[in-house]
Design a protein that fits this description.
Helix content of chain A: 25-40%
Oligomer: homodimer
CATH topology of chain A: Aminopeptidase
CATH superfamily of chain A: Gcn5-related N-acetyltransferase (GNAT)
Number of helices of chain A: 4
Structural class of chain A: alpha+beta
Order of helices and strands of chain A: EHHEEEHEHEE
Strand order of the largest sheet of chain A: 1-2-3-4-5
Distance between the termini of chain A: 46 Å
CATH class of chain A: Alpha Beta
Shape of chain A: globular
Largest interface: A-B, 63 and 63 residues
Largest sheet of chain A: 5 strands, mixed
Radius of gyration of chain A: 16 Å
CATH architecture of chain A: 3-Layer(aba) Sandwich
């Protein structure tokens, strides 16, 4: 089995990350038109002067096999920042090889290195494969909380 | 009725913000020991070289009547940052005077000024007063998503 290499994204990765984000949106059954992401927006968000997010790339036999996007959130109970995982995705045809686990392990390493109190992310309630994977890592659902959203156009 | 003034927090506000965070934790029935926040941690998180969060203060007759803590998150669908509201709290004895609404209005103004695609926050499912307030603002619950958390100690 080919080795998995996890590395930080570089600007040349942007087009392929965008295509993987589109694949994830399709997998998550996002509403048509929900995706207004462009390569320019992602390049600015990752590498611009007001960068808002970081990306990890999983490589397998020189191919981009998956990615993770994350940023720092903050817990007022803890008084410390945490790591919020916005996206994690592995190409469907490359699953079952430990690529998602390798991405997660690197995210956890980064979170610990930066003194984060915890790691959090959102999961679609019907995505039982993902839920089983997250539970196997020791993560727990915040069942008593619901996210509210106000779209600003 | 006394006028409500909304302003950004300054370092001298830290002790009183911490006492309001403790009041919010009690209101939200946080588990004993869940709060490891200190004044030093909050001062570093708000004003240190690696600031992770911002705070707004609501003043009413010269008294700190409430606060909001927020940071920027990121939406890969939108390719833009958003505003995540970590805490919003008004002293129970000062509710019903539009203080929460004034804090929200200022958060929305900041989010729009900074080009945010949306504003998001978590709500406890039993907090119907809060849910009614958020729905009156046009916010919608992400009912199909659950937050997962991995504590890192």
């Amino acid at each position: 089995m080919a080795e998995v290499k996890i590395r930080h994204a570089v600007p040349a990765d942007v087009p392929e990350i965008v295509s993987l984000i589109r694949a994830l949106a399709e997998y998550e059954k996002a509403a048509p038109g929900a995706l207004s992401l462009t390569e320019e927006l992602l390049r600015d968000s990752l590498f611009g002067p007001h960068a808002a997010v970081e990306a990890l790339i999983a490589e397998c036999s020189g191919q981009m096999a998956g990615y993770a996007l994350f940023f720092h959130n903050f817990s007022s109970w803890r008084g410390k920042r945490g790591l919020f995982l916005e996206d994690i995705f592995v190409r469907p045809e490359l699953r079952g090889r430990g690529i998602g686990k390798a991405l997660f392990a690197e995210l956890l390493r980064i979170a610990r290195e930066r003194g984060c109190s915890r790691m959090e992310w959102l999961v679609l309630d019907w995505n039982q494969t993902a839920i089983d994977f997250y539970r196997s890592l020791g993560a727990e659902p915040l069942n008593e909380w619901t996210t509210f959203r106000l779209n600003l156009g």
